[in-house]
Amino acid sequence: MGNEIIIGERLRQARLNKNISIDELQQKTKIQKRYLEAIEKGNFEALPGTYYVRSFIRQYASAVGENGNFLVDVYDGKDSFEPESKRAKPETVQGSRKALHEENPRAKKTRDYLPVVLLGVIAFMIVGVIAYVAWQDRNSDPVIGQTASSIEVDGSVTTEQEQSSEQASTETSQTTTSSSEEEQMEVAMEDSTQSQATIRVTNAEDPLELEVTGEDGRCWVGVSVNGDYAIQETLEPGQSESTTLPEGTENFVMTLGASGNVGVKVNDEEVDFDDPDYEALQKDLNFEVTYQD
C-alpha cells in the first residue's frame, strides 16, 4: 500500500490525455462518478472494499489504456513504479599474473596442433568407410540367383499389401467423415493461475449465450466485450443473469469476485474453471472462441 495517490494521478492523467470526461468514463465503466473521483484522488478508503478497489482500478485502466494488472500489483505492494537496479558483480580472477602468462603459450600450442589431429581423424574415418563398403560388396548375394518362385511370392505379397492399404484408407475416410458430422462444442480451461485463466471454446454455435448463477454465497460478475460491459452484477445465491454476445465475438473477459460462488454456462455447457491448486477468490476468465464452419 502507500501508492494510492500515484495510482490515482496516473489514471487521471491517462484520462485527460484521451480527452475523456468523468461522465464519459462513468458510461464506459458503469462505475459511480463518486468512486471514480475518489480513485483519482487516491482516496481508496471511500470505495466499498479492497475487492472493489482492485476491480475498479482494472476497469478504469482498461478504459484509458493503462495496464490494470500492473497497477493492482503496485497497490498490493507486489510491484513498483521504479525498477530495481542490479549491480554487476566483479569478475574474480584466480591465479597470479605470472601463472596466466605461463598458461597462454600452452593453450596456443594446443590450438596449433588441433587442426592436424582433426585431419588425421577424418582421414582414418574415410579409410574405414571405404574398407567397409568393399567388404559388403564381396559378401553380397548376386541378384541373378533369384528364383522365379520367389518373384511370384513377392508379387502376391505386394498385391495383399495394396488391398490392405486401400481398405485402411477407406476405413479412415469413413471415420473422418463420421467424426466431422458428430463435432460438438468443447469447453476447456488452459493456463490457469491464482488470478486468471484461459478458457478455450471450440465448435461453438453463433451467437454465444452466457449464463451466470450465484451459488453458495454472494458474488460479483462482470463480462466485458471490446471494452463494453454486457453484464456487471452482484449476485445472491440462486440469482441468475444471462446475455447474448454480439455475433462473431472471438474474445471476451469475465471477471469473477468470490469465484467459488459462481456458476458459468456457455450455450448451456458448464464451464469448469475450478483449479485445486489455488483458492477460489477474484479471477479473470479470458475466453477464446472459435465457431462451427
TrEMBL record:
Residue ranges with Acidic residues bias: 180-189
Keywords attached to this entry: Membrane, Transmembrane, Transmembrane helix
Compositionally biased spans, kind Basic and acidic residues: 81-90
Keyword Secreted: no
Compositional bias of kind Low complexity: 158-179
Keyword Transmembrane found: yes
Domain Cytoskeleton protein RodZ-like C-terminal span(s) in chain numbering: 217-275
Molecular function as annotated in GO: DNA binding
Ranges where the record places region Disordered: 81-106, 152-196
CDD domains reported for this sequence: HTH_XRE
TM stretches of this protein: 113-135
The protein, known as: Membrane protein
Organism of origin: Tetragenococcus koreensis
